[in-house]
Amino acid sequence: xxxxxxxxxxxxxxxxxxxxxxxxxxxxxxxxxxxxxxxxxxxxxxxxxxxxxxxxxxxxxxxxxxxxxxxxxxxxxxxxxxxxxxxxxxxxxxxxxxxxxxxxxxxxxxxxxxxxxxxxxxxxxxxxxxxxxxxxxxxxxxxxxxxxxxxxxxxxxxxxxxxxxxxxxxxxxxxxxxxxxxxxxxxxxxxxxxxxxxxxxxxxxxxxxxxxxxxxxxxxxxxxxxxxxxxxxxxxxxxxxxxxxxxxxxxxxxxxxxxxxxxxxxxxxxxxxxxxxxxxxxxxxxxxxxxxxxxxxxxxxxxxxxxxxxxxxxxxxxxxxxxxxxxxxxxxxxxxxxxxxxxxxxxxxxxxxxxxxxxxxxxxxxxxxxxxxxxxxxxxxxxxxxxxxxxxxxxxxxxxxxxxxxxxxxxxxxxxxxxxxxxxxxxxxxxxxxxxxxxxxxxxxxxxxxxxxxxxxxxxxxxxxxxxxxxxxxxxxxxxxxxxxxxxxxxxxxxxxxxxxxxxxxxxxxxxxxxxxxxxxxxxxxxxxxxxxxxxxxxxxxxxxxxxxxxxxxxxxxx
Length: 559
Ligand code: NAP
Fold this sequence. Notes:
The chain is of the alpha/beta class.
């Protein structure tokens, strides 16, 4: 099926396509489109019944993006970019889901995707240079190229509390909220967790529920989104020079920021306290991640970070009427160490008589009973338990598939650290590509633009292989080692390293390392120069050349 398009029909057949793409979220949709643009036949598999990935699964009340809408959108198609209208500064989940559905329809991508189909196994055929894939319905298919677009924040984590299955009420994880919603009206609702998902859900749940109990193990720093309806004048200005806007974003370390005029490189410690307070106030009023960039060293200098922490604790004391509750909500960990949370009305929600903060930091949750939650010697009677307990690590979604390369499983190769090259491929797994995984800016940047940049790079690499008669591309382990060291070095000294969070991993020696590539401009420089120089760090072969030599040719990598 060359350049063809229909999904695989034959049960049990080893049908071959050029590319199999696993996942139909932001990364998968664009990967399918880009591969189709190369004229390749594509088979996509998606566990959900529709497209959207994160925005398909995370339907909890209040779910919203914390990257501004004008930035959290694709740039690959000028008409799409100009025509799509976001209704708010920060789009809510239903609107982003509608956007992904629009992309699927506009670029005719659904015909390539088998929905409600989970890939369970992918084994590389070392002789034929192809991946053999099995799905949970028993179908078998094969492809030359395999694209993992399984998501970096995708595998929901629910603690294994004793008795969890005996709860007689309704239990739900925020990342598995049913499309038809959950009726909380007049119900007593417990929310376990105080991360981004809980911060967004609590104010919304409080509107309907009889009572919301927020079970907090650790408080977090939350800044206001200052969300508002679309600013038509701003939208016109951005759309008049969208390319310039995007290129400018590419010059910032996190890949966004053109909209913030107040960002500064000055140290927080180099200004007088009154001036520092004034600048923090201005960022607070601006809303969102702008706060992080009030000064140049809030994520690299713990003393500077503490000035931001103290400011937010001061805000909590102002916003929350009961001083004891305000104190309990005040974080003491290093500011910036965990991803900053952007919310709307979270701290204020605790002024409501029907919202109660429950401290489970010392009296840990010990059991779920048929009627509620036991912690310490207390029992909380509730009708609904919302698990806002987060996600497994960034590579967990790859472990839900048995991926076996010529030398063994990916899970084993990544056991200590998910080493890879440029964040797009990993040594020992020929023809396998990654999107939004460690080694690329991925979860530390705007995921939509990161998707485009990395998928475009991979598309160029596959195109280069095909044009030159190669059907096998693999990473040079030497280039991979240099890249992994480079990514590690960028994380050193950053405040992320001081606590457990989605950005960090622990290697087998117990060393904490930062997973995403920190620094969008340098990353773009690396992938672009690598492409221009003929994809150094990758070895290109075909069946004939491998018969004469099984050695991976040494090539000059990105570093
Ligand atoms: P999270 O940040 O990992 O938060 C999980 C929460 O559950 C934490 O408060 C954690 O407490 C708590 N928890 C876990 N196990 C517990 C236990 N046994 N007892 C009590 N509490 C427990 O997860 P999340 O809020 O879903 O956010 C995850 C990531 O998703 C974010 O970092 C962000 O990248 C993304 N996200 C983004 C948005 C957005 O764009 N606006 C919204 C939602 C999520 P501890 O802190 O003590 O471990």
